[in-house]
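Quick one, T. Sequence first:
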Amino acid sequence: MHHASLLDGMSFFQGRREMGVLEAVLLGAGQRGREVFGAFALNHPHLLRFVAVADPCEERRLAFARQHNIPPELQFVSWEDLLARPQMAPLCINTTMDREHVSSSLAALDAGYHLLLEKPMAHTAEGCIAIQRKAQQSHRIVQICHPLRYTAFYRKVKELVEGGLIGVPFTVLMAENIGYWHFAHSYVRGNWRQTATSGPMILTKACHDMDLAAWLVGKRVRKIISFGERRLFREENAPAGAPLRCIEGCPVETSCPFYAPSIYLGQHTEWPVSVISLDSSLEARRRALEEGPYGRCVYRCDNDVVDQQVVIAEFDDGTIVNFTASATSAEPFRSIRVLGSCGELNGHFEKQEVRVDKFVAGVWPPVPRDIFHVVASGSSHGGGDAGVIRNILRLIADNDYETAQLSLQIAVEGHLMAFAAELSRISGQIVDFEAYRHTVLKSLDS
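Structure tokens:
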């Protein structure tokens, strides 16, 4: 592949011609559909307008339709019903549940839509390549929602590394500290708690990071190995006497950091609290804890995904990427460290700071030290979510199919890294990446 210099997501910062409003249909009016893509349309009506929505939950569907003035005849219970109609807009934004991504995306492309698809791209490696092939066959623009590529922070990291400030990059150390409360919300109590119903954690959470690795290094992967397990959120770690639901009278409610009422019944009603109930009233939230999944004891859930994992990947040029995902950090944040032939780069995503230390003979610590402070262009994913949307609007306006295909290839590569890492974790073996890719292609073609 030849994508080392790709900075897709940059074009909308280049002062090119203004776009008119683009119409879109939405598949899935859940938290991401409503609070990210829907909110963008409401805040930028001159750029994006939703004309139809599909969601099996009547409450979500009607709420989105009211916000966007979508008439009853363009509100659908299923994505199948929406896509069975003649094409209603140039763009389909797909935020269905993970295991519906392949079938709904292929149908949207067959119906003539360009596609903005939430991550993960698919729950199987074969599904990812099937979507990529359909995009090529239909000559449609497809973009996966990997917002970190579109943040000022990671664009600065890529710019500095490719600019040679630290020489030839040898090692990339990446960490995603998920945060104890975030992990408990999404991967213990929430929708992504089971591999069978969503996917492995390295895919559903860390496909962002695998995508970044593929995008930053810009080479093919040679070998990959991974370790990880579920250690904390297990039945045997439950406090003595802990009930199935926190609200049923837990003996450690004053000291447990995962006590559901303290998380969901306070003054804060934005994400993640907004996920448990569309009605943000205290009564509705309490009822959600009594009846729904978010009120359960984190040690007595039906989760099976790992809560810690390490992935080590070797690329064709010898670059090593070492990535660690941890559930038990005090704060959620990502960090990156790139070690090069004549210096090193250190970055902290939440602090929006990148530091470069250059090697100098006889001096410790190394000088000169350069510190770069970047400014996020929005709050959601450091401005990356808005960047993703603006980027596909620009790609469609310019009919830039070539850039879209290159970006999609990187996304596929990152997803394959996640699947190969999970294969390694389960088997305990080093995965030869080209052999793995060949196996996936053979499976898809058989």
